[in-house]
Design goal:
mainly alpha; 64% helix; globular
Length: 107
Amino acid sequence: MHFQNRIKTYKEFYQFYLTKHIKPLTKAFHFLGILLVFAVIFYVIQSGEERFLWYCPIFGFGFAWFSQTIFEKNLPSIIRYLIWSLASDSRLFFEILTGNKYLKTKK
């Protein structure tokens, strides 16, 4: 049985999530995608141009899926765990931003 099939808590999921985001380019693409999502949301709030919100899933999912399939060679976990995946993408973004996680895996 795969670890993925046994996930019951978010804490377990986040550990699984991190095993799927090992390579620096994967983390960088996820970071960039979330950064662009926040930029779009900020722009929409400032300008009132709601029509630009459709960029959010393109940036958020596009960068993540690209990096998962090209660099990690695995399936994005969002397919099975939508809410936990979105929460984990945001968590990883803020952990990288604050220096609690690094793009380059430490040895």
